[in-house]
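Workshop exercise sheet. Pairs work together: one partner reads the sequence aloud, the other fills in the structure field after running the prediction. Swap roles for the next sheet.
Pair: D.N. / O.F.
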Amino acid sequence: MVSISEFVARVSSQALVLWNAVPGSRAHEMVFASLWCVALLIPLQGKARAQMPVPHADFVVARPVLNMYAKPSEDSEVISQAIYGTSVLSIEKRDGWYEIRTADGYTGWAVASNLKALDGSAYAPEERSVHVSALTANIYRKPDVTLQAAILQLPWEARLELISAKLDPAARWIQVRLVDGQTGWVQQGDIRRETVPLSIDETLQLARKFLGITYTWGGVSSLGFDCSGFTQMLVRQRGIIMPRDADIQAAWSGVIPVERKDLQPGDLLFFGSSPTKITHTGMYLGGGEFIHDTTHEHPGVQISRLDDMPWTKLLVASRRVK
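Structure field:
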């Protein structure tokens, strides 16, 4: 039996051969279909991470939060988002739009002007990468909060590239290269390098930091989450890459079923009209409470009681991340 790492390496190697051997976007679709199947079968683990870059990415997100639309039109549904500094893969171009793929397997249409071509060079490679660790962080042209207005306000997990790979722990200000090639300054208290995965208790403490953040359909950032975007982000802080949508999360091989009477803090709760029609998710805190991002009563991240209506009636599945 091969190890998980060996198995992934073999599949990735074979996919790369296909990528290089067969021209056209259809072959590239086949590559990512195979890799995404591997991702669904195996709960990938590692450092506590921001949004992941896509292999062979050719663009990087140049907006604080980039909407991904169902069609190449701003009048269509927002199906997900990508955050500043995240590398994505383009699949198709059409009239000022790109269909892009993010590392969680999601595809959607993005305005071309909100993306920056990588031209063969990565943005924020691992040795120079930091991400925003505050709910939001201001980026300034100069290392001062009073001289000029911030040039960017970035959400939690946005990626930035360090000018110097070595961080001075005594420095208040850190210089970074922005996606557009210009430089800026960020306060060191607003950023961090990738860290070891959080424990369940640490994850639940983190979750409470987002209380009150507004609900946004398709949202994946501290400027607005939807329910599954919120739980996906929390699980990612444990170093585990989970699928994007609630119904797929419930069916994912990286979780096991849990009876309601056996719930433990950190378990995932799924709500809907039936186990096959899941429409909402949250994370169990313990003591009969759970945290979730919902439009119910007051839209946003909030704590609710599992025994209260409508949640006690709508709970159709519970899962524990392996």
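Discussion prompt: Confidence is low (pLDDT under 50) at residues 1-42. What would you look at next?
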